[in-house]
Amino acid sequence: MTSKTVSGSMKQKYYDGFLDMMEILSKKCKRNLIANLLTEMGTDKPLEFGIPVYGKDDTRFIEFLAPGIFLATVFFFPLISSSVTFIVEKKNNTLDRAVVAGIGMTDFMAGYLLIQLFILMGQTAISFVILIYFIGLEVIGSIWLTLLLPVMVGISGMSAGFLIGVFCKDEFQAMLLSMATFFPNMLLAGFSKKFLSIF
Questions:
Q1: What SS3 class is residue 137?
Q2: What confidence score (pLDDT) does residue 33 get?
Q3: Which sign does the torsion angle of CA 73, 77, 78, 79 carry?
Q4: What is the average pLDDT across 94-109?
Q5: What is the pTM of this model?
Q6: Dist CA 160 CA 83 (whole Å)
Q7: How confident is the model at residue 10 (pLDDT cuts 50, 70, 90)?
Q8: Domain limits of the chain?
Q9: DSSP annotation string for 47-83
Q10: Which of 32, 63, 75, 83 is the most buried (most CB within 10 A)?
Q11: Within 10 Å of residue 87's Cβ, how many Cβ atoms?
């Protein structure tokens, strides 16, 4: 199990399902199968769960929640910054001046992509240092793959921001549309499921 909260609720569901099944079988067989089974097993628990394969059984809630918050942050900030920056360039006619000066749209977008990528890498590095050294999260596995995932999520957020910047006329529209794309992204990514698993 990767989370104490999820594993606790899963254990409870398995246990309840097992007892329901045994109760149905007991009614159909007209015998108390639960008591017979428990005396044969020599235990008071019909199901036993071993140690988790991945993670620890005593994880803190912040260890469960921090990766989702981290990836949501890494997605949202490039989404906002790239869309607002692109709209400001459109409003100031810098884009038109660059095209008149002979700079192609591919070169212009490549420059934007490089600048936003450097900002994204800095943001990812700072967030990663905070998660590991200040919050105390432990990375199990390859550190490079752990760093690659937020960069890829940030690139997808940056690409979505450029798309929003193309369609919106001002920054306010971009902010509203960014929030409208961000919240369904959080729901589909399972971020809210972590809160729902508590109840």
A1: coil
A2: 64
A3: positive
A4: 81
A5: 0.68
A6: 8
A7: confident
A8: 1-58, 61-196
A9: ------SSS-TT--HHHHHHHHHHHHHHHHHHHHHHH
A10: 83
A11: 23
Q: What is the mean predicted confidence (pLDDT) over 50-65?
A: 69
pLDDT digits (tens, 9 = 90+) for 80-90: 888 888 888 88
Cα distances (angstroms) measured from residue 130 to each of 42, 76, 126: 49, 18, 6
168: left (phi over 0), alpha (psi -120 to 50) or beta: beta
Give the whole-angstrom CA distance, residue 11 versus residue 49: 8
Q: Return d(Cα 71, Cα 55) in angstroms, integer.
A: 19
pLDDT in tens, 162-173: 889 888 888 888
Task: Give 96's DSSP letter.
Answer: H
- How much helix, strand and coil, in percent to the nearest 5, is found in the chain? 75, 0, 25
Please state the separation of Cα 73 from the chain's center in Å: 9
**Which of 142, 110, 143 is CA-nearest to residue 124?**
143
> 34 pLDDT exceeds 70?
no
pLDDT for position 146: 86
Helix (H) or strand (E) holding 197, with range, is none
Torsion-angle region of residue 42: left (phi > 0), alpha (psi -120 to 50) or beta?
left
